[in-house]
Amino acid sequence: MKKIVFAALMFVGISTLHAQVKNPVQWQFEAKKKGADYEIVLTATVDKPWHIYSQNTGKNGPVPTTFSFKKNPLITISGKVIETGKLEKVYDKNFSTDVLFYSNKVVFTQLVKVKAGVKTNVSGTVEYMVCDDEQCLPPTKKTFDIKLL
Q1: pTM value?
Q2: What is the pLDDT of residues 89-132, one digit of tens each?
Q3: For the domain 23-148, what is the CATH code?
Q4: How far apart are CA 80 and CA 66, in angstroms?
Q5: How far is CA 43 from CA 1, 17, 104, 108, 116, in A?
Q6: Please, which residues bridge with residue 3 across strands?
Q7: Hey, where are the domains in the chain?
Q8: Does the keyword Signal apply (predicted)?
Q9: Is 90 exposed, middle or buried, given 0-12, 13-18 or 19+ CB atoms closer than 10 A?
């Protein structure tokens, strides 16, 4: 009887480990002072063999990376989020369209203007999707809160 209980517990333990959520993207959020303004730097480091999609990937394709910033009367978002990295473009038969993505690392930057002489934060959410050659993970949302000193 003890052997059966032990085997059942081992099976449950192994199943639990196997069912753990994959998280192949690590995010780093920081602000760099640029004169009176700040450059918000959102860096995604992607484990191999995964890739993360561009903000501008093909229509009807995977979920593009998007950023939403919480309203803050002390700051003004200036322009669009710029992405920097080795952009790859391939036709994806699963989505029946060309897709744009980054492997390894991509840096997203957003210029923020801050009212003079104030300390505040910029916060928001990034939504992204990652795939490898065999599977895609569901879209993921990650929140961020960056101090502007």
Answers
A1: 0.83
A2: 999 888 889 999 999 999 999 999 998 888 999 999 999 999 99
A3: 2.60.40.1250
A4: 11
A5: 53, 28, 11, 6, 27
A6: none
A7: 23-148
A8: yes
A9: exposed
